[in-house]
Each structure stands twice: as C-alpha cells, then as structure tokens.
Amino acid sequence: MKRIIVITALCLFALLSAGWVLRLAAKQQTRKINTTPAPPLRVEPAKESDATGKTVAAAKAFLATLDAAARARVSFAFNSDQKSKWSNLPVGIYNNRNGLRWGDLSAAQREATMKLLATALSKQGLQKVKEIMEGDETLRPPDSGRGGGTGGPIFGRDEYYLAFLGAPSLREPWMIQFGGHHLAINLTIVGKSNVMTPSLPAAQPTTYKLNGETVRPLGRENDKSFALVNSLDASQQKQAILPYQVSDLVLGPGEDGKTIQPEGIKASALNAAQQNMLLDLAHEWVGILNDEAASAKMAEIKANLPETWFAWSGPTTQGSAAYFRIQGPTLLIEYAPQRLRGGGLDLNHLHTIYRDPTNDYGARLVKR
Known about the structure:
Layout: H1 2-29, E1 32-34, H2 51-63, H3 68-74, E2 75-76, E3 100-101, H4 107-120, H5 123-137, E4 161-165, E5 174-180, E6 183-190, E7 193-195, E8 200-201, E9 208-210, E10 213-215, H6 219-231, H7 234-240, E11 258-260, E12 265-266, H8 272-286, H9 291-303, E13 309-313, E14 323-328, E15 331-339, E16 345-355, H10 363-366
Parallel strand pairs: 2-4
Antiparallel strand pairs: 1-11, 3-4, 4-5, 5-6, 6-7, 6-8, 9-10, 12-13, 13-14, 14-15, 15-16
Helix pairs in contact: 2-4, 6-8, 8-9
C-alpha cells in the first residue's frame, strides 16, 4: 500500500512539474505581440551645422568617390525591401546583403566610409564598430583569402557592407545601413531626428588581443549589467530574475513590428543610484549614435523611466553567462550569450539588440 502511495505521489509530482514547465514554455512562446501603431512625430528641419547636416555632407563626400556603377550598387529607394535585409550571420550563411563590400573599396573610399561613420556615430560608437570588425578578423583562417572554406561562412573585416536608402537629405527621409557578421547599424535620418533602431551590435570573440592590447567590444555592457544586478537586494532580485532561462534574443533579426510583455523589476522599484546605473547601461547602446541624437534619446528614456523594466535570466556572478533585458515605452535592449553545441551558454559569443518598437526605421517620423 505504501508503495502505491509513493508511486502515485511521484506521478502527481511529475505531472505538476511537467505542467509548470509547459506553462513556462507557453509563457515564452506567447510573449511576442504585434506593436500598436503609434501617432506620428513632428519632424524638425535640419541645418547644415547640426548632426544631420554633417552626416549629409559626409555621405555626399563618400558618394563623390564612386563611379556611376558603384553609386547604383550602394543606393536603394527608401521604401525598398532592402530596409529589413540585415542579419547577424556571416556571408556564406546569409547572402542577401546589398550595397558595397568593404573589401572591394579603394583606400580613399574606405577613408570616406570611416569619416561618414565617425560623423554619424559617437567616438565610442565608432570604436565599438571597429572592435566588432577586428574581432571578426580573428575568426578568418590564416591565408584563407576570401572565405573560410567552400560553401562555409566567410569571416573578416572585408565582409561588411554599406548601403544608402534614399538620397542624403536635410529634409527627406534616408538611411545608412552598415553591417556584416555580428553587426547591423540601421540609422534612419529624417530632418534633425536620427534613429538608430533596430541595430545589432554583437561580439565573437568577446575578448581578443590586438597590438598587444586586450579588446572587449561589449565589455562595458557586461560589467555594468553585473554591477546593476548585484546592487539589487534579495527582494529586488526576486522581482528582476526570471524563473526560466532565456538563451537567445527574443526580438532579433526578422522580428520587426513586434514587442513583448514587460517582465522583471520596474525602475520605479529601484533606488536613485540603481536607476542611474540602469540609465548608464542603456547608454551603451543609445550612445553608439552621435552625441546630439543620443542625448535626445536618453532624455526620452529618462522621462519614461518609471515605466521601464529590467529583467535578468541566469547566474548573477560576474564571469557567468546571463541574459538581460531593458524595456520601456520606446526602448528594448536585449543581451544574450549564445548556446554552445553541447549545451550551456557561450561566454565568448554574445548577441544584443537595440530597438524602439514604436519607431524602428523612424516609422513615426515618416508617417504622414
């Protein structure tokens, strides 16, 4: 009789556990929801002296280095389907990138590209882009030429592409796309407004040596996130840490037009120091953009701070592999170590995403 009771209890426990797991799985599967269309934003005219004006001038200077055939390859209509053709995957696996390949540019054209990126992005943002590209160079097999084997992925700094959607303008909408493996910069410019969502900065390897120096392209993001989660007391951590593992981006490439239900702890439940840490962490993504536009976006995020959430999945010990998310009314940031083939998460392979579900690709600025 006792044996029957024990077996029955074990069966009930297994069923309850399975139900709990299924509920968590269902919760993960249903978190994505379509975004609600947001009202249009007023477009403020740009001037030649502001960030937009300087970026327009740098873009035109780059275009002036090209012949007619190259200008045709780099230029697309603003509303073309090229807009959503971006990926974190390397060439050889993802082959739909258009535009001009870094490795095919002359020295003068590369210099003009870097001047454009230096104008459109911040000093810190440009450095991050360079570090991601140099990290990819470490993945390229020695003496491999262009590629990592027949039919396989192709790595290296040469495999990054530049494209324009629309003509550089102080008034009309246009875009700069720059990216490749582990990098997608989508910068929409409408008048004075510069919108860098959706964009995907990532890293593999996360640490490498260059000219004798240790480089960590996403090192500050990692360090600041662990500092924040470990500043939380037990009660706050109980709210912030999700009861299931997240092992990839929820709203990565191909997930345009969607959002997820907020989870974790609200910023209103954080003290002033913790709120500042959260803002500083968000700035690692927002601050990739030029200082003028980044300051405007940070002011918007700070105004929405009471409705902003911080969620964590995984261990809280520095040096561990953990996922986190920052989500507000006009902000979504995800940070996700990738899965190892044998299971577990890879500390040396990180993906992140930066979105504004209400205004990706400047949707609210181009809405008339």
